[in-house]
Amino acid sequence: MLTDIQNEKDQRGWPIDQVGVKNVKYPITVLDKQNVRQSTVATFNMYVNLPHDFRGTHMSRFIEVLESHRGEISLRSIEGILVEMKQKLKAKSSYLEITFPYFIEKKAPVSKAKSLMEYECKFIAEHNSNFHLTIVLKIPVSTLCPCSKAISARGAHNQRGIVTLTYKSKKLIWIEDIINQVEDCASGQLYTLLKRPDERYVTEHAYDHPAFVEDVVRNVALEISKVKDIEWFKVEAENYESIHNHNAYAMIQAHNGQDEK
Predict the structure, then answer these.
(1) Residue 35 and residue 43: Cα distance in Å, rounded?
(2) More confident residue, 122 or 58
(3) Which pTM was predicted?
(4) Which comes out higher in pLDDT, residue 55 or 245?
(5) How far is CA 244 from CA 147, 161, 248, in A?
């Protein structure tokens, strides 16, 4: 019989808040508003708590849990996975982070040429006495500087940026709907495929809709606060500045539509 070192008693008296495995690549299925389901590959981080008197946890059991849910890992199965982690590892708390690319078909604004646009999504979940789920979306946008436009005789500097929206909701909200709301809050959207008429349109549209990062986070906050099923959110905007050697950043947190002051 092989010795189980993990079950040895530990005498140092320190419980561990989270212990487990990181950077596990695994296929998942997510709900898709247009196509019902979308298959993608996610990166998993999986943890449980460890009492002070146990030396270690059983790392292989995390993978066993994933294997037992192969082909059915989705937003709706996360709570069950967390419960199984607690049971299999004899823990009181379990934690799961799932990061994956999500693709949405977009049409170019003028030519209507179709292409897939990638968005980074993340589910952060935990189960102690209750189940808690947080969703993180990274949405690329473009912004044009209002100050540059005001002081320049020819054009204005613009740049790509990322809006990161983190939120907790009472029920499922389509990722596509949230992304559409956020993209309309910047100077312009990004596309994978653009023809020359499309390039002209997005350039002129951005020029007509200048926005600082401050404008972007306020615009997003106004829109997301109208979504009644969202209980709390944090919106961050970061511009990859085109004429400065630094990035511009702004953030707003809110609960039930009220900013946290």
Answers:
(1) 23
(2) 122
(3) 0.89
(4) 245
(5) 14, 14, 9
